[in-house]
Specification:
Blueprint: H1 2-18, H2 27-32, E1 45-54, E2 57-73, E3 76-87, H3 89-92, E4 97-106, E5 111-120, E6 123-132, E7 138-145, E8 151-158, H4 167-172, E9 185-187, E10 190-191, E11 196-197, E12 199-210, E13 217-229, E14 232-242, E15 249-256, E16 259-269, E17 278-279
Antiparallel strand pairs: 1-2, 1-16, 2-3, 3-4, 4-5, 5-6, 6-7, 7-8, 9-12, 10-11, 12-13, 13-14, 13-17, 14-15, 15-16
């Protein structure tokens, strides 16, 4: 049970950050890695409930909250985005989970810095990424502190833009949905302090979604987050985002070898646009 909840909540954090983006680079290079933001503004706050299916019973195992505020990073105006996940008291009796994710992006949504601090059971580890953009490339300075305290540093440089699990979320919310076709794949190069994943989003169409423990319904676009590993494609997450200018992820379904998990949006404030996807 302990290992199952551990793995499940790790993927839940990746999902919320996907739905399903130590110093600034040049303005030109960062603009190439950014996207025009029309989906959110500083002051937005979202909250979620996390559920796990254990022996055919859905159990609430925790909560997650995400906030976006204006800030300054290395003297540059930036968005500061944080995601906090917390296990419930019932879960704490079996497994302690306290995770905090943080990222800075410029106002064009190019990533500047990412940090993940994760306490899961008796384990605590830290991932950090610093982004620079020399000669139009994307350079990552990576730092990891393993659960055993071992420290790792390494650098990598790519000709294409690379994101983390937070900055890619901000970017994905600003995709032009009108141009998407059912079955279309969208590359999502995401890195942590260990490796770069071969992953993408697949657009699978639209649906009307009824929320858990509520009569509210939303018109949603549906995406699958897929990762290729060991020569096989694996759908890790299916998420539902509102079919309006906010592109809010209102539900996320996680598919694991040992079960399934879901995250439901429970609260929102400070939205940039009206919630026109809500069905009366």
């Amino acid at each position: 049970m302990r290992n199952i909840l551990n793995h499940r909540l790790l993927i839940a954090k990746v999902t919320l950050a996907i739905l399903c983006l130590a110093s600034a680079g040049t303005a030109r290079a960062q603009a190439n890695c950014g996207i025009e933001n029309k989906a959110f503004k500083a002051g937005e706050f979202l909250s979620y409930d996390l559920y796990f299916n254990w022996q055919f019973v859905w159990m609430k195992v925790g909560t997650a909250s995400m906030s976006i505020v204006n800030s300054v990073y290395n003297g540059q105006q930036a968005y500061r985005t944080s995601l906090i996940t917390r296990g419930s008291q019932k879960l704490d009796n079996m497994f302690v989970m306290r995770d905090t994710l943080l990222c800075y992006t410029d106002h064009g949504l190019s990533p500047l810095y990412f940090r993940k601090g994760a306490r899961e059971g008796k384990r605590y580890y830290v991932d950090e990424l610093w982004y620079t953009y020399p000669k139009g490339n994307c350079h990552l300075r990576m730092h990891r502190i393993d659960a055993d305290g071992e420290v790792h540093w390494k650098d990598a440089e790519y000709k294409s833009c690379i994101y983390d699990m937070m900055s890619i979320f901000l970017r994905a919310r600003n995709f032009n949905a009108a141009t998407l076709k059912v079955g279309q794949n969208i590359p999502m190069p995401i890195s942590d302090a260990k490796h770069l994943s071969n992953s993408w989003l697949k657009y699978t169409g639209k649906t009307t979604l009824k929320m858990k423990n509520s009569s509210e319904k939303y018109r949603c676009m549906v995406f699958s987050f897929i990762e290729r590993e060991h020569g096989k494609n694996h759908e890790l997450i299916r998420f539902y985002i509102t079919d309006d200018k906010n592109h809010l992820p209102v539900r996320l379904d996680m598919f694991l070898s040992f079960g399934s998990a879901k995250a439901y949006l429970t609260g929102m404030k400070g939205l940039r646009n009206p919630m026109e996807s809500k069905v009366n």
